[in-house]
Amino acid sequence: MNLTERRHGDSGTPYSDASPPRDTGPAEPAPAPDRPGRTPPVLPPDHTQAILEVTKEVAAVLKTSGCPFALVGSVAAYAHGIPVRLQHDTDFALRREDAETVTRLLRQRGIRIVEPPEDWLVKARSGGEEIDLIFSLAGRPVTTELLERAHTLPVDSVHMPVIAPTDLMVGRLAALSEHHCDFGALLPVARGLRERVDWDRVREETGEKPMAAAFLYLLELLDVLPRTGTGTEAGTAAATGTGTGTGTAADSGTGTGTEGGARDGDGG
Q1: What is the pLDDT of residues 87-120, one digit of tens each?
Q2: Contact by Cβ (8 Å): 165, 80
Q3: What is the rounded CA–CA span in Å between residue 135 and residue 99?
Q4: I need a labelling partner for 222 at 20 to 30 A (CA). Which of 104, 127, 190, 256 fits?
């Protein structure tokens, strides 16, 4: 160590004052974020491909089981062509009576089974990713009829049954509550599937759910769905000749309210 230099962290007298401290020039600037050798910032991991790999692995086991099943949740929306980012887990719907057979085969494949406190699903893990085997969707038991309506679609090149678009929307809307009401995540799914969903059945099966009704009304305001023309909205539509009012062609200049409503339905 040079005697003219202070020890690191020592604010006292230098070892020798025989010569002045060496001038090292201006301090070197801190490395810029993009300079070579600097550790890049840690970004949140994108689990999309990892979840797809686990989805294919579990689907292969389910196919060999002979038990009916269907891919549900966000990965099902992905399979239907919705550009969602997969970050959490992969979900499969199956009948409760098939749970023992399926879990036995998954264990044989080396997939770890976790028994949760909930009685409507079984959880599993593979490669660090979570798997949900669901017997009940939003409080409704998974039935053979629901699984038979599934569409066979490719999921990252592997074909498997995927829950039908209408059943997907019914399940997602029925699951909304005061504690979980993320319209932002559900809106792109509704936009992407709107031409493939039986919205009358969605309304019928979720009519008692206030959050579902609010989301469907939002879709009408955004012109994703044709307006139903009820209550105050019906009066406004009748006055402007754009909805399902009862005015005549002479009143609105656009034909009867029924005709206008039919055109809206065709264009939805």
Answers
A1: 778 999 999 999 999 999 999 999 999 888 888 8
A2: yes
A3: 8
A4: 256
Longest pairwise C-alpha distance within the chain: 107
Q: What is the pLDDT of residues 200-240, one digit of tens each?
A: 999 999 988 999 999 999 999 999 999 886 544 443 443 34
Full DSSP string of the chain? --TTSPPTT--S--S--SSPPP---SPPPPPPTTSTTSPPPPPPP--HHHHHHHHHHHHHHHHHHT--EEEEHHHHHHHTT--PPP-SEEEEEE-GGGHHHHHHHHHHTTPEEE--S-SSEEEEEETTEEEEEESEETTEE--HHHHHTPEEEEETTEEEEE--HHHHHHHHHHT--SS---HHHHHHHHHHHGGGS-HHHHHHHHTT-HHHHHHHHHHHHTTSS-----HHHHHHHHHHTSSS----HHHHSS--HHHHHHHHHHH-
Contact, 144 vs 68, CB < 8 A?
Answer: yes
Residue indicated by tokens 């949140």: 44
Residue pair 261/255 in contact (Cβ under 8 Å)? The answer is no
> Cα–chain-centroid distance for residue 190?
11
Each residue of 19-55: pLDDT tens digit? 555 555 555 555 455 555 566 655 556 678 889 999 9
Q: Would you state the structure tokens that stand for residue 177, as one six-digit string?
A: 């509550």
Kindly state the average pLDDT of the residues 252-260: 39
Q: What's the sign of the alpha-carbon dihedral 160, 163, 165, 169? A: negative
Rounded to the nearest 10 degrees, the angle between the axes of helix 165-174 and helix 199-206 is 30
